[in-house]
Amino acid sequence: ADAMMSGLSSFGMGQNADYELDMYSKVNTQFEYKNPSSPVDTAVNSNANRGGGGDRSIAGTTQPPITSPKKIPHELPVCDVVAPSDLPGGYMFEAQLGSKKFLATVPPGGVTKGQRFVSTMRELETIEIPVPLGGWRDSVVDCFTDGICHPLFLNSLVVPCIALGQIMTRNGLDWQGNPANKLVSSLSCTNMTVFLTFWLSINASAAVMLRISWDRLHVVFVEHWIPLVCFNAFFLIYFIYLTMNVRLSIRNKYQIQEGSCEGAEDCLCATFCLPCTICQMGRHTSDYDTYRATCCNATGLPRQVELAPVTFYEDQYATMEDGQVV
After folding, report:
1. Is residue 156 very low, low, confident or very high in pLDDT (cuts 50, 70, 90)?
2. Counts for the chain of helices (H) and strands (E), in that order
3. Residue 138 carries which DSSP code?
4. CA 130 to chain centre
5. CA-CA distance, 292 to 309, in Å (whole number)?
6. Lowest mean pLDDT: which of 10-24, 131-145, 157-171?
7. CA–CA separation, 166 and 282 (whole Å)
8. Do the Cβ atoms of 89 and 107 come closer than 8 Å?
9. What's the rounded Cα separation, in Å, for the pair 42 and 203?
């Protein structure tokens, strides 16, 4: 401390020295409690009030060394959030404050629907979620694990094309269920949506024509409904084939062995348990205990959530050209 006071006296003009001494006193007072009437403070104040230079050592006192202030760690901003539903502690979901979107975290103990709680405003950065290796996350019959109103269950039951397209996009698969580059796989959900729209349009048009034929002739000829049956049969066969390929690609990616009916398990699950199979693949490649499911986007997950890469799988399909695996 004596050396510091002497350094201040040799700094230059008395006014500049007074300024430096005042700053020293403020810093010392901020990070260290001092009694204003103590001899140390009295000596400092008396020296600070003098205008000239000279030795400004504090006689008769023991001045502790100056320690640098501790840095306060950066803290995320917080705000009040209204829970959209009953959520467990640690659950994260996308929220919005004005025009800013952020990732909200449910406090320990969970919240109920409509409850207000304080959450940190975490930036929407890319988050990678791990996927289990060597086995399925749960069974094919565990469709009701997340409830009957879960977006994945409803999509798989009502519009399985959309649910399967979301799973294909998040796993990097093309319209045939095979691994593809990101550009091609990002369009998988869109392709399935177009395919579903086309199927609905054809069936709606056929239904109108069959109704008109029945109203006029009170009979429906075979040549009127046979093309419709063939079209729907082709659509069903393609969808079963696609689901089988997607399941096979996921099993290969995460090293999941067939549990029974070796060589035919994927085909049997896709044929006789289609909605349940889609649900199982969706649950396996997500973490619904932490991140909320969505029903109307390309992956069925929050926009910032992606699947963690699997090294051996990425190496196997490292070379891709024009969307084809080489």
Report:
1. very high
2. 11, 8
3. S
4. 12
5. 21
6. 10-24
7. 8
8. yes
9. 94
- Show the 3-state SS of 33-96: CCCCCCHHHHHHHHHHCCCCCCCCCCCCCCCCCCCCCCCCCCCCCEEEEECCCCECCCCEEEEE
What is the spatial distance between Cα 154 and Cα 271, in angstroms, rounded to a whole number? 19
Geometric angle at alpha carbon 193, from 189 and 197, rounded to 5°: 170
| Alpha-carbon 283 to chain mean position | 15
Angle at which helices 188-217 and 222-253 pack, to 10 degrees?
160
The string of DSSP letters for 256-298 reads PPP-SSTTTHHHHHHHH-HHHHHHHHHHHT--TTTB---SSSS
- The answer to whether the beta carbons of residues 126 and 306 sit under 8 Å apart is yes
pLDDT of residue 119 exceeding 60: yes
Q: Say if pTM beats, i.e. exceeds, 0.70.
A: no
Strand ranges for 127-275 from DSSP E: 127-129
The structure tokens listed for 325 are 């695996």
**Burial class of residue 138 in the structure, from the number of CB atoms within 10 Å of its CB (0-12 exposed, 13-18 middle, 19+ buried):** middle
Phi, psi for residue 60 in degrees, rounded to 5: 75, 10
Q: Percent of the chain at pLDDT above 90? A: 44
Is the separation of the CB atoms in 76 and 96 below 8 Å? no
Q: Give the burial class of 193: count Cβ atoms within 10 A of its Cβ; 0-12 exposed, 13-18 middle, 19 or more buried.
A: middle
